[in-house]
Amino acid sequence: MAHCAINVALYGPGARRWAMTERGAAAVERAPGLFRVGPSTLEEQGEDLVIRISERGMPIPRAVRGEIRLKPEARGDTSYLLNPHGQHVWRPLAPRCHVEMAFEEPGLSWQGTGYLDHNRGAMPLETGFLDWNWCRGDTEAGSLVGYAGRHQDGTPFSLGLAFDQAGHAQRFPLPANQPLPGTFWRVRREVPADPGTRPDVTETLEDTPFYARSVIRTQLAGRSVTAMHESLSLTRFASPIVQAMLPFRMPRRG
What we know:
Strand 7 (48-56) and strand 8 (63-74) form a beta hairpin. The protein is 7% helix and 58% strand. By secondary structure, the chain is mainly β. The strands form five sheets. Strands 4, 5, 6, 7, 8, 9, 10 and 11 form an eight-stranded antiparallel β-sheet that branches. A seven-stranded antiparallel β-sheet has the order 15-14-13-12-20-19-18. The protein has a two-stranded antiparallel ribbon with strand order 1-2.
């Protein structure tokens, strides 16, 4: 409760904005179907999740104001352990959603398919992991999610899930990771891809000293997929230099 934020990243022609302002417990409200941090809220409305954003972007202080509505088309009812002792748990709450968004600042609107998941943990991420790569994309049959990384002791982990249109998940063995082009900050990007195929990067959306978000194309379980992809280096994140840089992107209020 002492460190809460609602993080929003927008990508569009002439409308790239990023906001994550951290606030303390006095700025947080929790009630059935409602979560508020400062002026921004997440609220259940029937089956929908409505996210109202009213923030200030960083490092350039521009307004980020608008609404996002998620309409789940499939729901996930299973949680997955990301490490052997269960200190980190991941659950895809809605493997597929219809998303409608309309922003006043910047003037940006969009609708299409999306995704909602949930992570929780009993220790900091950098205590449990060295790094990970994650990807998620739609197929004609449903959607695919791939998680692969290394625990803090260097042992690898991987999880491949194929969701059908109803949200039912079936595990599949992730193929070996293949390298993607590096970023400006030299964050290592990798993605699983079927043998004999070659993944590529369509667009790099975020390029930071410890994290990269990208749109990629790959083939998994015999299906071609365009996916959202993230690469996270917890070793980089924990370094004193990166920790000193974080307040410039993630300021604290109150």
